[in-house]
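Support request from a user on the community tier.

User writes: "When I paste my C-alpha coordinates into the form, the page sometimes reloads and wipes my input. The last time it worked, I copied everything first. Here is what I submitted, just in case something in the input itself triggers the reload:"
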Protein backbone atom coordinates (compact mmCIF):
# COMPACT_ATOMS: atom_id res chain seq x y z
CA UNK A 1 0.00 0.00 0.00
CA UNK A 2 1.54 3.28 -1.05
CA UNK A 3 1.20 6.65 0.69
CA UNK A 4 -1.61 7.86 -1.55
CA UNK A 5 -3.75 4.76 -0.93
CA UNK A 6 -3.12 5.05 2.80
CA UNK A 7 -4.13 8.73 2.77
CA UNK A 8 -7.26 7.96 0.74
CA UNK A 9 -8.16 5.21 3.20
CA UNK A 10 -7.94 7.67 6.10
CA UNK A 11 -10.07 10.20 4.24
CA UNK A 12 -12.71 7.55 3.53
CA UNK A 13 -12.62 6.40 7.16
CA UNK A 14 -13.05 9.99 8.35
CA UNK A 15 -16.02 10.55 6.02
CA UNK A 16 -17.66 7.31 7.15
CA UNK A 17 -17.14 8.25 10.79
CA UNK A 18 -18.69 11.70 10.25
CA UNK A 19 -21.68 10.14 8.51
CA UNK A 20 -22.08 7.67 11.35
CA UNK A 21 -21.90 10.45 13.96
CA UNK A 22 -24.55 12.42 12.06
CA UNK A 23 -26.78 9.33 11.96
CA UNK A 24 -26.26 8.73 15.71
CA UNK A 25 -27.17 12.36 16.44
CA UNK A 26 -30.31 12.03 14.31
CA UNK A 27 -31.28 8.83 16.12
CA UNK A 28 -30.69 10.52 19.48
CA UNK A 29 -33.02 13.37 18.50
CA UNK A 30 -35.66 10.90 17.32
CA UNK A 31 -35.37 8.91 20.55
CA UNK A 32 -35.80 12.06 22.65
CA UNK A 33 -38.96 12.94 20.73
CA UNK A 34 -40.28 9.41 21.19
CA UNK A 35 -39.60 9.51 24.94
CA UNK A 36 -41.31 12.89 25.25
CA UNK A 37 -44.34 11.66 23.33
CA UNK A 38 -44.44 8.50 25.44
CA UNK A 39 -44.48 10.55 28.65
CA UNK A 40 -47.29 12.73 27.28
CA UNK A 41 -49.33 9.68 26.30
CA UNK A 42 -48.83 8.07 29.71
CA UNK A 43 -50.17 11.19 31.40
CA UNK A 44 -53.10 11.41 29.00
CA UNK A 45 -53.81 7.72 29.55
CA UNK A 46 -53.80 8.25 33.32
CA UNK A 47 -56.25 11.15 32.93
CA UNK A 48 -58.54 9.03 30.81
CA UNK A 49 -58.46 6.22 33.39
CA UNK A 50 -59.29 8.68 36.17
CA UNK A 51 -62.12 10.16 34.12
CA UNK A 52 -63.49 6.72 33.29
CA UNK A 53 -63.34 5.78 36.96
CA UNK A 54 -65.22 8.97 37.87
CA UNK A 55 -67.92 8.19 35.31
CA UNK A 56 -68.31 4.62 36.54
CA UNK A 57 -68.57 5.45 40.23
CA UNK A 58 -70.11 8.90 40.68
CA UNK A 59 -71.83 8.00 43.97
CA UNK A 60 -68.70 6.62 45.59
CA UNK A 61 -66.80 9.77 44.51
CA UNK A 62 -69.33 12.00 46.26
CA UNK A 63 -69.17 9.87 49.40
CA UNK A 64 -65.38 9.92 49.32
CA UNK A 65 -65.35 13.70 48.90
CA UNK A 66 -67.58 14.06 51.98
CA UNK A 67 -65.34 11.75 54.01
CA UNK A 68 -62.15 13.51 52.91
CA UNK A 69 -63.70 16.84 53.85
CA UNK A 70 -64.38 15.54 57.35
CA UNK A 71 -60.98 13.91 57.87
CA UNK A 72 -58.88 16.39 55.88
CA UNK A 73 -57.28 17.79 59.04
CA UNK A 74 -55.67 14.41 59.78
CA UNK A 75 -53.73 14.37 56.50
CA UNK A 76 -50.39 16.10 57.15
CA UNK A 77 -48.81 15.65 53.71
CA UNK A 78 -50.05 18.23 51.21
CA UNK A 79 -51.28 16.71 47.97
CA UNK A 80 -50.15 18.10 44.65
CA UNK A 81 -52.73 19.42 42.24
CA UNK A 82 -53.25 17.38 39.08
CA UNK A 83 -51.18 19.81 37.01
CA UNK A 84 -48.28 19.74 39.48
CA UNK A 85 -48.53 15.95 39.72
CA UNK A 86 -48.24 15.82 35.92
CA UNK A 87 -45.18 18.05 36.05
CA UNK A 88 -43.72 15.84 38.77
CA UNK A 89 -44.26 12.77 36.60
CA UNK A 90 -42.56 14.42 33.60
CA UNK A 91 -39.68 15.46 35.87
CA UNK A 92 -39.33 11.89 37.15
CA UNK A 93 -39.34 10.67 33.54
CA UNK A 94 -36.18 12.76 33.07
CA UNK A 95 -37.48 15.97 31.49
CA UNK A 96 -37.16 19.58 32.58
CA UNK A 97 -40.43 21.28 33.57
CA UNK A 98 -38.96 24.70 34.36
CA UNK A 99 -39.49 27.65 32.03
CA UNK A 100 -35.76 27.83 31.24
CA UNK A 101 -35.38 24.36 29.73
CA UNK A 102 -38.93 22.98 29.49
CA UNK A 103 -39.15 19.70 27.61
CA UNK A 104 -35.43 19.12 27.27
CA UNK A 105 -33.89 15.96 28.66
CA UNK A 106 -32.18 16.15 32.07
CA UNK A 107 -28.69 14.75 31.55
CA UNK A 108 -28.10 11.78 33.88
CA UNK A 109 -31.29 12.81 35.71
CA UNK A 110 -29.46 15.67 37.42
CA UNK A 111 -31.63 17.66 39.81
CA UNK A 112 -32.87 21.07 38.70
CA UNK A 113 -33.72 23.62 41.38
CA UNK A 114 -35.94 25.54 38.96
CA UNK A 115 -37.99 22.44 38.12
CA UNK A 116 -38.32 21.52 41.78
CA UNK A 117 -39.49 25.04 42.55
CA UNK A 118 -42.14 24.81 39.83
CA UNK A 119 -43.40 21.48 41.21
CA UNK A 120 -43.08 21.93 44.97
CA UNK A 121 -42.64 25.68 45.33
CA UNK A 122 -44.96 28.04 47.14
CA UNK A 123 -48.53 27.63 45.92
CA UNK A 124 -50.47 30.76 45.10
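"...and here is what came back when it finally went through:"
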Amino acid sequence: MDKRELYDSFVNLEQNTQQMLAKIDEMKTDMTQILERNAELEIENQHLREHLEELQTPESEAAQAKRSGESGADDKTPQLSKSRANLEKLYEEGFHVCYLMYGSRRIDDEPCAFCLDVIYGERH
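Agent notes: The reload is a front-end session timeout and is unrelated to the input. The mean pLDDT is 82. Helices lie at 3-56, 58-70, 82-92, 113-120. Escalated to web team.
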